[in-house]
Amino acid sequence: MKGLMQDWQLTTNKILEHAKRINPTREIVTRRVEGNIERTTYGDLFDMSKQVSTALQDEGIGLGDRVATLGWNSERHMASWYGAMGIGAVLHTVNPRLHPEQIAWIINHAEDKVLIFDKTFLPIVEAIKDNIPTVKSFVIYAGADTMPENTLGAVPFDIWIDGRSQNVRWGDFPEDTACGLCYTSGTTGDPKGVLYSHRSNVLHTMITMQRDAIGMGANDVVLPVVPMFHANAWGLTFSCPATGANMVMPGAQMDGASIYELLDTEKVTITAAVPTVWLMLLTYLQENDLKLPHLNKVIIGGSAVPEKILRAFEEDYEVDVVHAWGMTETSPLGTLGTLPPHMLDADIDTRMAQKLKQGRPPFGVELKIVDDEHNDVAWDGETSGRLLVRGPGIAAAYFKGAGGKVVDEDNWFDTGDVANMDQYGTMQITDRAKDVIKSGGEWISSIDIENIAVGHPKVANAAAIGVYHPKWDERPLLIIQPVEGETPSKEEIFAALEGKIAKWWTPDDITFVDNIPLGATGKINKLALRDTFKDYKLPTA
Ligand code: ADP
Q: Which stretches make up the AMP-dependent synthetase/ligase domain (predicted)?
């Protein structure tokens, strides 16, 4: 027997339609690439987005066509999303931090027809324009007065949409229609496209609106430092208009001073970014003796949060840290570290230890951990294995079948992360499968070693990798990037590790570099490090 309720298709246009009706005066505040502040409302955004839809239709764009953006977080970028998605086109966010050759590769793979971009990226687009034949039109996020000279025949975004009809039908397709495309950064081989559907984006939005997830409301002011090209700004481009929260868009300026200024002047209550951004902000706050009186919550993810960042926010600035884990393939939020009930009265050290873990899955995300034989491991907070994930916001395959079959017969997606789980469902990542250091067949957690090393005041960044050892196969080598002007000794770093990790986890050697290489999403590029140090001779070898 079927239920007798309405068929209300889960399409993303409904999110902005709701914002227009219920919260039309709530704002999107953008720092333009020119530096000035622009204020727009959800009401205006709706109108702009409709005009984008008409502009795209006039270019011949329709159901399933790919529209690419190379853009900072801004209201114009948001209008491109909702404008493309509303008519069933696929909005493809390209990560501008990738190498231009890789950007061209991705655009060709996606067969993008329109490319809309910030003028910061004009040199990239000019450099690749002859290698991206599918792109027929170029639009630059600019007005007539701020339009840069170019050889692309590009039009300014404001002129492109100006005067266009808003009388365009949205959402006239099934909810499983493709909606957005985002490529993983390709730290392992060619980038692979994750193809979100309207349904997956709407359900991910509802999942992340839960109070133990991000849990924002109409009274919040949210600053997504995390870029829209990094897995949908962790869904904030959907959950903010869905709730009516104000958005504050940092544009191209993500240094400590610029972020502080927005947090302060816009009275931001919730913000989100990877740890490197917070390191810059905290340094700026400390140097200038500033406080964060308005901020309630900071979402930190993308890589493990170092203890000194966690403690600085919680103890020095009284900001609640929500440590989150996820990946492009999981829409992206998979777990969030809101304190569970049994931890509320625990002492500060216990609470901080809990928050260093990656958190618990909200309703709508299923996790399990398996050993090499694909058997479940105990949820004892110790036994680690491969982390599998399942749910309506999790990828079932990659665009154009890249990578072959990616889920098992029960639909579980292998994240490539290694983790353990405690009895309360708190997940702790101990490594990425490809980064694991295997010493004598046993796993050593590079993340634990790195976190402790980064806690040392003279250390700016740290990476532990496995290098060849004749007896143990692999042993850890710790690579340290010192804080500028500091020259820590090996002994100081060994002393910092002592007693905090199992003795056999202690790196066999420590080496110092000026710069630890970062990938396009701001994470340590271990592939590059493993290559650089592939012939490293450990003193113990
Ligand atoms: P890529 O895999 O291309 O770097 P993603 O941004 O999708 O792009 O990265 C997802 C991966 O980032 C996860 O599989 C995990 O290894 C790592 N990651 C994300 N959040 C965390 C976290 N809070 N702690 C540790 N690792 C994390």
A: 19-399
504 in catalytic set: no
Query: In angstroms, what is the span from residue 326 Cα to ligand 1's centroid?
Result: 6
Which atom of ligand 1 approaches the CA of 324 most closely?
23
CATH architecture of 437-532: 2-Layer Sandwich (3.30)
- The Å distance, Cα 360 to ligand 1 centre, comes to 16
Encoded amino acid at 69, one letter: T
Output the pLDDT for position 188.
54
CB of residue 304 inside a 6 A radius of ligand 1: yes
For the Cβ of 335 lying below 6 angstroms from any atom of ligand 1, the answer is no
| Alpha-carbon gap, residue 268 to 208, rounded angstroms | 19
CA distances from 84 to 47, 103, 206, 319 (A): 13, 20, 21, 37
Of the residues 314, 443, 506, 523, only one is catalytic, namely 443
> Tens digit of pLDDT for each residue in 456-505?
999 999 999 999 888 888 899 999 999 999 999 999 999 999 988 888 88
Q: Is 234 a catalytic residue?
A: no
Which residue in the block uniquely carries the two structure tokens 């639009």?
139
C-beta 432 within 6 A of ligand 1: yes
Mean pLDDT, rounded, of the chain? 95
Q: What is the DSSP string of 49-75?
A: HHHHHHHHHHTT--TT-EEEEE--B-H
7-39 confidence digits (pLDDT tens):
999 999 999 999 999 999 999 999 999 999 999
Q: Where are the domains of the chain?
A: 437-532
Q: How far is Cα 33 from Cα 292, in angstroms, rounded to an integer?
A: 25
User: Which of 165-179, 195-209, 506-520 comes out lowest in average pLDDT?
Assistant: 506-520
129 is known as an active-site residue: no
